[in-house]
């Protein structure tokens, strides 16, 4: 039986698992494999003898990939394992941007001791009126495990869905509903869509992909959703676009001092994959990857 060191607590998966504080790297000295969730590993000494790192999640920007390559350490991620959790929160984001749910809840809290609350609500609710998602155009940039799920689910809500991914895989294409229009130019998404959600990995090429030039091509009143990584969006530029009325709402799952508490920004604390189901799925997939590699030399999702 291998001992698996975890840098963050991970669900039980039927193997001997124990956790370590991620700062105490000396404790990892005889580890053959490390499982990590979101903790950044860039400043850590990677122990000699370490053979594999499994990132229990999709993005690997918290892993020092070059250092691992130099040392021959195989890095795995768990594509798709938390995609449903993220997908569901994207729809929560779209609803929060379209309906004043938070304003309505706050109003009820303020009126919790008002004995006429039921009657007064009928007048107050006019101030919280919103819009529906059905009939609106949604652009999905990036058709990996999450983007495909978002695109397909949106068709069931009656949205007209455009999907864009320059590197769409045959698998992803097959997984797309026939009701999703797969288009070849991201500019078409910018000019056509009422909602735009980005689901690409953070790479040099994708950094600040949604920038001033992109916002200028978008429809007035567009809602932009970012459940992928904050650096994909030029957030200074999106604040300006909000001021100018170009962007109605920016929904992001990555809080920072640029967007937190700012006009037009709806910000959650990286909750996309924070569900019991997603955490369990990632942990199980990550452990299976490591086990298969250490025992059989098989490499999947590296
Ligand atoms: C991911 O990369 O899988 C998501 O951002 C969720 C996470 O990091 O926990």
Automatic annotation (TrEMBL):
Catalytic activity: (2R)-3-phosphoglycerate + NAD(+) = 3-phosphooxypyruvate + NADH + H(+); (R)-2-hydroxyglutarate + NAD(+) = 2-oxoglutarate + NADH + H(+)
Similarity-based family: Belongs to the D-isomer specific 2-hydroxyacid dehydrogenase family.
Keywords noted in UniProt: NAD, Oxidoreductase
Associated pathway: Amino-acid biosynthesis; L-serine biosynthesis; L-serine from 3-phospho-D-glycerate: step 1/3
Record's signal peptide: none
EC annotation from Swiss-Prot or TrEMBL: 1.1.1.399, 1.1.1.95
Protein name: D-3-phosphoglycerate dehydrogenase
Biological function: Catalyzes the reversible oxidation of 3-phospho-D-glycerate to 3-phosphonooxypyruvate, the first step of the phosphorylated L-serine biosynthesis pathway. Also catalyzes the reversible oxidation of 2-hydroxyglutarate to 2-oxoglutarate.
Enzyme class: oxidoreductase
């Amino acid at each position: 039986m291998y001992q698996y060191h975890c840098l963050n607590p991970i669900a039980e998966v039927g193997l001997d698992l124990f956790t370590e504080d991620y700062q105490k790297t000396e404790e990892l000295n005889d580890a053959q494999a490390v499982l990590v969730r979101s903790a950044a590993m860039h400043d850590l000494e990677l122990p000699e003898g370490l053979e594999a790192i499994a990132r229990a999640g999709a993005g690997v920007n918290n892993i020092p990939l070059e250092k691992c390559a130099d040392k021959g350490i195989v890095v795995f991620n768990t594509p798709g394992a938390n995609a449903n959790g993220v997908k569901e929160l994207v729809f929560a984001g779209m609803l929060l941007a379209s309906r004043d749910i938070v304003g309505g809840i706050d109003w009820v809290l303020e009126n919790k001791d008002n004995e006429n609350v039921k009657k007064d609500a009928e007048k107050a609710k006019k101030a919280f009126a919103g819009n529906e998602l059905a009939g609106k155009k949604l652009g999905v940039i990036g058709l990996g495990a999450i983007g495909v799920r978002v695109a397909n689910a949106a068709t069931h809500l009656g949205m007209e869905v455009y999907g864009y991914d320059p590197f769409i895989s045959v698998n992803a294409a097959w997984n797309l509903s026939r009701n999703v229009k797969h288009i070849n130019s991201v500019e078409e998404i910018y000019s056509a869509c009422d909602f735009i959600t980005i689901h690409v990995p953070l790479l040099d090429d994708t950094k600040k992909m949604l920038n001033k030039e992109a916002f200028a091509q978008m429809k007035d009143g567009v809602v932009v959703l970012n459940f992928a990584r904050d650096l994909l969006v030029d957030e200074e530029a999106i604040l300006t676009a909000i001021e100018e009325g170009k962007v109605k709402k920016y929904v992001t799952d990555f809080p920072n001092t640029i967007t937190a508490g700012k006009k037009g920004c709806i910000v959650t604390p990286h909750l996309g994959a924070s569900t019991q189901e997603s955490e369990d799925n990632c942990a199980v997939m990550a452990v299976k990857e490591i086990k298969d590699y250490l025992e059989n030399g098989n490499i999947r999702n590296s």
